[in-house]
Amino acid sequence: MAARNDILKRIGLDVPEAARIRVLVDTDAKNEADDQYAIMHHLLSPMLDVCGIVAAHFESKALVPGETMEKSYREVLRVLELAEIDDVPALRGCVFPLKDKGDAPDSEGVRFIIEQAKQPGRLYIAVQGAMTNVAAALNRAPEIAENIVVLWNGGGPYPQGRPEFNVMQDPEAVRAVLDSGAEVWQTDQSVYSSLEVTLAELRRRVYPCGAIGRYLYEQLVEENHREYNSSFLLRTGENWTLGDNTTAAVLLMNRFRGNWHMRRAPIIADDLTYRENPAGKLIRVYDSIDVRMTLDDLFSKLELAYGGR
Q1: What is the rounded CA–CA span in Å between residue 48 and residue 46?
Q2: DSSP assignment, residue 151?
Q3: Which residues contact 76 (CB under 8 A, 6 or more apart)?
Q4: Can you spell out the DSSP letters for 255-286?
Q5: Secondary structure (DSSP) of 26-56
């Protein structure tokens, strides 16, 4: 085991100090097989000062109520161990969705978000699942809103929207964050679904990258066999969508691209579609991301850090 900086030294990038930004990863890591790739992308990006990883629930898939957050937490620990990183904190988040958009449950992850948001400088929160932990933190400490940027990987495509998995986990939490004063950058389903890879590409580029590479590949193949459903449009049987990596992509891409626009935050209706909200705050909505750059950056960093090990 080693410090994260020791792993980053293997990559050998010299990033300007002024380019570094603080990031907190909030992840339902054991929900599927792509959160693990997104966790590693953040950890292996030197410009991202990853202050911690908070586990999120995915209770809509729970076989036993209240067990999914703990599964995510243990998966975060497993990824950190295989990545040989022992100095990035992992914390347990909320066990259940909010009861209503004003609910403010406590957890060590929620307290950590509040603590980090009160530190100097903006805090970017990469939300790769349910919005529960961030919403609970904002409800408990509304003053942190002015110091955070919520990278929201979720929501159906505009203009109508549709029921989308991450929103389904906790619609009230999404409503709470959209009603808060926090800045929001959204990559909706039409954007995150573009981060498509083939199993052949993962076998060639990820599997050879040490223990973590083998695990990333093998657990995805297992998930593909376990969860494959021909009616699920994101999967063909020989592909996967690394959709959660959008939260790294929006930070790594340059800002001249014009690949996002500002719009009023929608109302999330009871059927999880969008309703126009003239009084909603302005949020940044991404129209696209650079898939080639994002995936090749991830694969290159894995190869540089763990290739041949």
Answers
A1: 5
A2: E
A3: 27, 29, 39, 53, 55, 90
A4: TTS--EEEEEPPEE-TTS-EE--TTSPEEEEE
A5: EE-TTSSSSHHHHHHHHHT-TTEEEEEEEE-
Domains, the chain, in order of start with CATH, read 4-306 (3.90.245.10)
Rounded to a whole number of angstroms, the distance between the first and last alpha carbons of the chain is: 14
Per the omega criterion (within 30 degrees of 0), is the bond before 105 cis?
no
Spans of the chain below 50 pLDDT: none
Asked if residue 172 lies in contact with residue 101, where contact means CB atoms within 8 angstroms, the answer is yes
Q: State the Cα–Cα distance between residues 220 and 209, nearest whole angstrom.
A: 15
3-state secondary structure at position 3: coil
* Of the candidates 114, 256, 246, 117, the residue with the CA atom closest to the CA atom of residue 188: 246
Q: 167 is written with which tokens?
A: 């929103």
- For the stretch 92-101, pLDDT in tens is 999 999 999 9
The predicted structure's pLDDT at residue 25: 98
Is 86 in contact with 110 (CB distance < 8 Å)? no
Count of CA atoms in the C-beta half-sphere (13 A) of 31: 25
Residue 236: predicted pLDDT: 77
Estimate the share of the chain in helix, then strand, then coil, as percent rounded to the nearest 5.
45, 20, 40
Alpha helices for 187-254 (secondary structure H): 189-192, 199-205, 210-227, 246-252
**Per residue in 51-86, is it b (16+ CB within 10 Å) or e — as a string?**
bbbbbbbbbeeeeeeeebbebbbebbebbbebbbbe
d(Cα 263, Cα 285) in Å, to the nearest integer?
A: 7
Predicted pLDDT at 233: 65
Long-range CB contacts for residues 258-263, cutoff 8 Å, separation at least 24: 259/286, 259/287, 259/288, 259/289, 259/290, 260/185, 260/284, 260/285, 260/286, 260/287, 261/285, 261/287, 263/158
Euclidean distance between CA atoms 182 and 114, whole angstroms: 13
At residue 89, what is the residue type? Answer: P
- Please tell me the distance from the alpha carbon of residue 187 to that of residue 154, in angstroms, as a whole number: 6
